[in-house]
Structure formats: C-alpha cells, structure tokens
Amino acid sequence: MNGPVPVEVLKQHLIDPEICIRCNTCEETCPIDAITHDENNYVVRADTCNGCMACISPCPTGAIDNWRDVLRAEAYPVDEQLTWDELPVQDDALAGQGSIGEAAQGSQGASGGGAGAAGIGVTSEASAPVIGGSDLVRGSVVPPWSAAKPYVNLYNHKAPVQASVVGNYRVTDASTESDIHHIVLDFGKQPFPVLEGQSIGIIPPGTTADGRAHHARQYSIASPRDGERPGYNNLALTVKRVTKDHQGQAVGGVCSNYLCDLKKGDVVNVMGPFGSTFLMPNHADSHLLMVCTGTGAAPMRAMTEYRRRRRMKGATGKLMLFFGARTQGELPYFGPLLNLPKDFIDTNLAFSRTPGQPRRYVQDAMRERAADVAALLRHDHTYIYVCGLKGMEDGVLQVLQTIAGEAGLDWQALWQRMKTEGRLHLETY
C-alpha cells in the first residue's frame, strides 16, 4: 500500500510594499536576477530565489526581509505580488514548516552606469574588472564600530510624520541648467532622530495615472544629527530637480519637482528614518575619505558639518573630499565649501565640462593626490564613503586599487578587511 505523497512547504521570500521605497538596491544586488519590479512593486520570483541573503543588508528600510511559509505548489506568483498593497497573512497551519529550496540556475551580473556623467568618467582602466569584483556587495554591510545607534522605520506609508518647510534655497548657480535645492524640514515636537549618512522617504501628494497614491522617494540627509540649526529638531535635504530621464527625454520628476517648488510653511509627509550602516565613526581620531558627485554630497555635508562642530571638542581625524560636477556652477554648495578652513578639510574638486578645459573626474583628482590617499589607506582609522551615480563605483574602486598597489599594499586583502570592519561604504544609485 502506498504512503501519502509528501507536501513540500517553501519559505517564500517577499518584499513588504508598505515600507519599500523602491530604491532598486535589492534588484541591483541580487546575483541571480530573482527580483523584478513594475511601476507599483518590487517582487521576488519564487522559482529563482535561492535564499542567498545578498539583498538583505543593503536594503535601507528592511522591506526586503520578509518571508511566508507556503505550499510550494501554491507559491505567490509575480503577477499577484505586483498588485499587493500589503503582505498576505501567514497561514498558521504552515507557520514554521518552510525551508528554502535549491537554487534555480542563473547567471551572475552587475549593473553599471553610463560614461560621461558629471564628475564621474569611465575609462578603459576603470571599466576593467576590479579584483574581487564578483562580490556584488562591494562595501561594508556593518557600521563603524564607534557609530551611534541609529533609529529606523519610525514612520511608514500608512503613518507618516509631518514636517514643515522652514527653508528652500537653490545651491547651484542660477545660470546653469542643474537646479539643486537645499531644503530644511522642521519636525516640531514630533521625534525624528537621525544620524549622518541616513536617509528619509518623502511621500509626494497626488496619485499615479491609475489612481494609486505615489510611492515615497528616498533622499539622503544633508545635515548633522543635532539639526541643520544646532539644537533644533530639523534636517536638510539636497534635491536636484529632475527634468530629463536617462535617455535625455523631457520628464518631470514627481517628487523632486514637488520638493524644489515648496514654499516656507508648506507641510510634507515623511517616512523613515532609513539606514543603519552608511554611518560615520564617532571616535575623534578617525579619518574620513569622501568621494561624491552632485547630490551625493548630501551625506558628506552632514558628516563634515558634524565633525566641524566637534572640532573644538577634540576631534583630530583628517577629512579628505573629492567632489565632482560638470561645471563649477553645477556644483552644489560651491561657495560654502571654499570657506571651510584648509587645515580642517582637504577639498579636491573635479569638473568634467568646463569650456576650454580637459575633462577631469574624481578619479583623476584622486590619482593626482595618490600619495595622500595612500597614506590614508595605510591607516587603520580611515573610513571611506562613496556616494553618487552608479557609474562612479567601478572607477573609484579601480583607482583605489591602483593607488594601493603602487604604495605596496595588497588591495584585495585591504578591501576585504575594510568591508568587514565597517570602513568602506558605497551608496550609489
């Protein structure tokens, strides 16, 4: 007599649509293309996901870390997941029985950015494989050991916090096409504790063409933990008005245009805070090597300003900044940057579209300062932060590898050690 056919229970990987901010980090990180998306949701293919967990740590909100035990034959299909506004309830009869099955065969690949973006530059050297480049999680997934403890996900789509606009200033030259704003939001008596390197979600008003509420957009915080104005419950953002898509076609960025047009006194719905790894160290002798382009300057501004405020309290670590833009007029905070004391921060600017001048990118500036960069790489208290367009990541890692090699350092070993110790942080998009 035949026995009962065993029923296989799968621990299905799902993404919570209520707190996902559609930043695309998970899809870029997944090594087997198990994650996809449409205009509504990011979802996981049950027949492809192998539970490798590569996407878990990089997710800024934790939306990626959700699981449901289901019968394998009844796993939630992609088409159904794309329609969800919230996760399904766990079937109590199956709870705790799921296991992650064998991986479907997939090809590993990494996405990259286009050449010629402001201050980035992709040369034949930069596009060559970086040692260890098959490791798609190229930066640290743990914070610095001395970083303060972050608060995350205090507010979500269903229950956002409201903040009032107390300032909105353009920080690029009025004659340039690049319209970047410094926007200050005040939370009044509502708690919203943040750290340098964290981000928030802004929920733009209105609905999409199909009548759905807009999803939140993510923006890095550009002010230190004690407020844009010291001692106040406020923070600043660096926002670029989006007027073209990646193909150069005219398009109006829903949230960026909303933010750039805000007036003093307007009220904004905010989610977050997000982020628990891209944080600055708190020990006073830590050195910061910062590389950024455009609005990627936001977390660097936050870290620099916090360190400036601590300078008179014994902070002795060095700050070195490489900042790229197309032209001087398109570089946000250009004037304030020049006013920072030279003995406080070593600032190196790179402009890729200055008329009559050769194109110069952040990698070029780093090569010119190779001896000083190498000195920082040798130091166990050096922390590296890279923020900007995805296209800069390969180039920056390549030039670090070159500088390390010329200085007699084993880059592969150093890279892995810095990642493990929370000293190499990449935030590219």
TrEMBL record:
Residues engaged in binding NADP(+): S220, K240, T295, S352, R353, G388, L389, E427
Needed co-factor(s): FAD
Cited Pfam families: FAD_binding_6, Fer4_21, NAD_binding_1
4Fe-4S ferredoxin-type domain sequence ranges: 11-40, 42-70
UniProt key word Transferase: no
Superkingdom in the source lineage: Bacteria
Presence of keyword Iron-sulfur: yes
Boundaries of every FAD-binding FR-type domain copy: 158-280
Catalytic activity, reaction form: benzoyl-CoA + NADPH + O2 + H(+) = 2,3-epoxy-2,3-dihydrobenzoyl-CoA + NADP(+) + H2O
GO molecular function: iron-sulfur cluster binding; metal ion binding; oxidoreductase activity
InterPro entries xref list: 4Fe4S_Fe-S-bd, 4Fe4S_Fe_S_CS, Benzoyl_CoA_Oase_BoxA, Cbr1-like_FAD-bd_dom, FAD-bd_FR_type, Flavoprot_Pyr_Nucl_cyt_Rdtase, FNR, FNR_nucleotide-bd
Top-level EC class as recorded in UniProt: oxidoreductase
EC number(s) recorded for this UniProt protein: 1.14.13.208
Keywords carried by this UniProt record: FAD, Flavoprotein, Iron, Iron-sulfur, Metal-binding, NADP, Oxidoreductase
NCBIfam families registered for this protein in UniProt: benzo_boxA
UniProt subunit comment: Homodimer.
Cross-referenced PANTHER family: PTHR43314
Protein name as it appears in the record: Benzoyl-CoA oxygenase component A
